[in-house]
Design a protein that fits this description.
10 helices, mainly alpha, about 270 residues
Length: about 270
């Protein structure tokens, strides 16, 4: 796999699609900001209540946060639905239109992502729950604190490993969903495994790690820019998202059929 070529083509696709089309870029920034609206409303409500001297209502606050998170996920479906069109292989960068289609694809993408995240969440809940119960049962005797922390760290490491493995399947599953329009294809683990096999497990894992490094490095650099860093992050959010989606799409399309096998059927 030519990683340099994939990075170059992904960047070119993103640059050509956004640099010459400011309207698309602005609309994508707006879509990316939609999930922040319910979170901002709850935060403003809490701040106003505190400034007014009102005692915080913990159950109401927790319920508000839960509702805000659900609304944020739903509003984020428009943005993610647009990215599905990139996973589908559309070239050049598609226009920002058909918002109902974005929402439909985005909601299904959200369902797929939540299902993939369940094992990791369960591991974290069990690990943190066990740690809390152990601390409470230990009472003032904290002589075994290192053992408790060790258990929590082991749970965290397990969650990270499982999360990475699921991410490998999630990426290919999402592309399969985008190409077929069927949610079940995102969980067709036999076909996903075979697809990764045709790409090559080693090259594929390295490709995903390279993408992680690029996104983390860019995000870290932007985060350390004084004052205007957050603003630049918002403006460049579509750039990173489109680059990542196109990158994974090109990795998916790099799969090679074994010698003597039938030609792949277009999805």
């Amino acid at each position: 796999m030519d990683y340099g070529k994939i990075i170059d083509e992904s960047f070119g696709y993103t640059k050509d699609g956004l640099a010459g089309n400011l309207g698309t870029w602005i609309l994508l920034v707006i879509l990316a900001l939609l999930p922040a609206i319910p979170i901002g409303v709850i935060f403003a409500f809490v701040m106003i209540s505190l400034m007014a001297g009102a005692a915080p209502n913990i159950p109401l606050f927790a319920g508000g946060i839960a509702v805000a998170c659900i609304l944020a996920a739903i509003l984020g479906s428009f943005y993610q639905g647009y990215m599905i069109r990139i996973y589908r292989g559309e070239d050049p960068l598609p226009a920002v239109e058909n918002f109902l289609g974005f929402f439909s694809d985005g909601i299904r993408y959200l369902v797929i992502t939540i299902i993939y995240a369940i094992p990791v969440l369960l591991i974290l809940l069990v690990s943190m729950g066990a740690l809390i119960l152990a601390v409470l049962s230990a009472g003032p005797d904290m002589s075994n604190i290192f053992a408790l922390l060790g258990g929590a760290i082991a749970g965290l490491i397990t969650a990270l490993v499982v999360g990475f493995l699921l991410t490998l399947f999630h990426y290919i599953g999402v592309v399969r969903f985008a190409r077929t329009g069927k949610i079940r294809e995102a969980f067709n683990f036999t076909e996903i495994r075979d697809t990764i096999g045709r790409i090559g497990w080693g090259p594929y894992i390295l490709a995903v790690i390279i993408l992680f490094v690029i996104v983390i490095l860019v995000s870290t650099v932007l985060a350390f820019i004084p004052f205007i860093g957050p603003v630049i992050q918002v403006i460049l959010a579509p750039v990173l998202s489109i680059f990542s989606a196109r990158y994974i799409t090109l990795v998916y399309d790099s799969q090679v059929e074994p010698p003597g096998s039938k030609a792949p059927v277009p999805e």
